[in-house]
Specification:
Blueprint: E1 2-7, E2 10-15, E3 30-33, E4 58-64, E5 73-78, E6 86-92, E7 103-109
Antiparallel strand pairs: 1-2, 2-3, 4-7, 5-6
Length: 110
């Protein structure tokens, strides 16, 4: 099962795998964001969560796998209500070599 869409010209596809590798069930998703043509250098794609209320803090665990010749960088930001977002994690994937396997990232705020 998948859902395709575009946001400000950036193409993406939301997939629901038969089996999610983290849980061993079908209760997961992954996103494919196109970085080659017709995208241009400087285009940005944002994945934004709904508001998470957690007075004791929270962690975001995610896996990523990026490969190809048209990649840029990836960041995780944290924002409190209407304040300016704070960068929590950054990966410049233009630097080579990239591992050919999935990478697990855990980002926490307290």
């Amino acid at each position: 099962q998948s859902h395709a869409g575009a946001y400000q010209g950036i193409r993406f596809i939301l997939f629901r795998p038969t089996i999610d590798h983290t849980t061993g069930t079908s209760a997961g998703y992954y996103v494919f964001i196109e970085s080659s043509y017709p995208q241009k250098v400087g285009d940005k794609a944002w994945l934004v969560s709904e508001v998470v209320e957690s007075p004791k803090g929270a962690c975001l665990d995610f896996w990523y796998h990026m490969k190809g010749d048209t990649l840029g960088n990836m960041s995780v930001y944290h924002r409190i209500l209407d304040k300016k977002p704070t960068s929590l994690w950054f990966k410049d994937v233009r630097r080579r070599p990239l591992p050919e396997r999935k990478q697990l990232v855990r980002v926490c705020v307290f």
